[in-house]
Automatic annotation (TrEMBL):
This is Cellulose synthase operon protein D. Gene3D superfamilies: 1.20.5.3790, 3.30.70.2590. It comes from Komagataeibacter saccharivorans. It comes from the Bacteria. GO terms for biological process: cellulose biosynthetic process. It holds the Pfam family Cellsynth_D. Transmembrane segments: none annotated. Coiled coil: none annotated. InterPro entries: BcsD_bac, Cellsynth_D_sf.
Amino acid sequence: MTTFKKQPDFSLFLQALSWEIDDQAGIEVRNELLREVGRGMAGRLAPPLCNTLDTLQIELNALLSMLGWGYVSLELLSEEKTLRIVHEDLPQVGSAGEPPGTWLAPVLEGLYGRWITSQPGAFGDYVVVRDLEAEDLDSVPRQTIILYMRVRSNAL
């Protein structure tokens, strides 16, 4: 006799957890917590050292595929000295997050921040931020756009 074992589904648990974290900790604390989770994930699942952006993109997509977390395209904006990270198909935790459907986006900030800074030539004085102006916030987003750039100095 053949038996089939159903894979556990954590979506209901994650949705209830997201609401509780948001209600009890607030948005800023939640976002920092999720960034730390992303950094931790990146430490456990690290890409090899890559000498080109194209190679890094291939390696990151292989890792994301293992997780079932969509895919990424990387673009160097040399004039702005910024790496534009366009992540497609991030899993959603229902409508959780601001804007709705983006609850896991801070995880990507931590994940990419650690992945990118582990690469040759990466700079340590960096900031990773979501580019909300570039995202279509009028609908449940399919893209998360992240910018990785040097910290701007106020010194003259």
